[in-house]
Amino acid sequence: MDQSQIEIAVLAFIAAFVLFRLYTTLGKRTGSERPAEPRPAPVQGDLQRAPANPERPAAPQPVGPAGDGLMAIVRADPSFDPEYFLTGARAAYEMIVNAFAKGDREALRGLLTPKVFASYDAAITQRETAGGEGPELVRLRNAEIADAALTGDVAHIAVRFEAELAEGAHGVRDAREKWTFERDIRSPDPNWLLARVTAA
Fold first, then answer.
1. Residue 137 domain-assigned?
2. Gap between the Cα atoms of 175 and 194, Å rounded
3. What is the rounded CA–CA span in Å between residue 51 and residue 39?
4. Per-residue CA distances from 24 to 4, 16, 19, 34, 91 (Å)
5. 70: domain CATH number?
6. How far apart are CA 133 and CA 177, in angstroms?
7. What is the dihedral of CA 143, 158, 195, 168, to 10 degrees?
């Protein structure tokens, strides 16, 4: 074996030894390694917040005849949203009219104050005795907040409804009514109850 072959063999042995030591040192965990730096997980869903923007305009305040009353309710209950309330009021109108037409007292009980429920119950009983039919909702044309007030912890909001109702042989008539809903803002129950109905 000449000199060059001996040098190559020695270098190969040294390289193999170095690789073996690297593998035994770095290729397996000993429990003394430094843990990886924790990284904050990205915020998802409703918890994500938009970056602060001091120039962003404030949410529009309620205006009109009911503006002051609505703002009083918002100050007492920051979660109150007039637009969301009006959407719920429209749904409540349809549910109450339909339940009254069917004589569904149980459905009405959870939507009306005791005083209004007693009035509706008496009207249903009178209608059933006479063999009449209840008015059916054909179309809800419009709904708008007409008035609002906060008395103590009780919020009152009046909504003006315009609708078309079918009354059997009497055909379709226009109905314009003002419904007043109320809710104790300190109560955990988020539902509003119909407390009064008047002609609009």
1. yes
2. 17
3. 20
4. 30, 12, 9, 17, 72
5. 3.10.450.240
6. 20
7. -30
Tell whether 67 is covered by a domain: yes
> Which has the closest alpha carbon to 177: 136, 125, 126, 141?
141
With respect to residue 4, please indicate whether it lies within any of the assigned structural domains: no
Q: What is the pTM of this model?
A: 0.68
Instruction: Mention every residue, 6+ apart, whose C-beta is less than 8 A from residue 128.
Output: 103
User: 89 with 194: CB under 8 angstroms?
Assistant: no
Q: Confirm whether 50 is domain-assigned.
A: no
The DSSP code sequence of 160-181 is EEEEEEE-GGG-EEEEEEEEEE
| pLDDT mean for each 10 residues of the chain (200 residues) | 61 54 47 41 33 45 80 95 97 97 96 98 95 92 97 98 88 95 95 95
- How much is the pLDDT for 194? 98
Domain count for the chain, please give it: 1
Q: Which domain holds residue 88?
A: 62-199
Residue pointed to by tokens 């419009």:
142
pLDDT, residue 9, reads 62
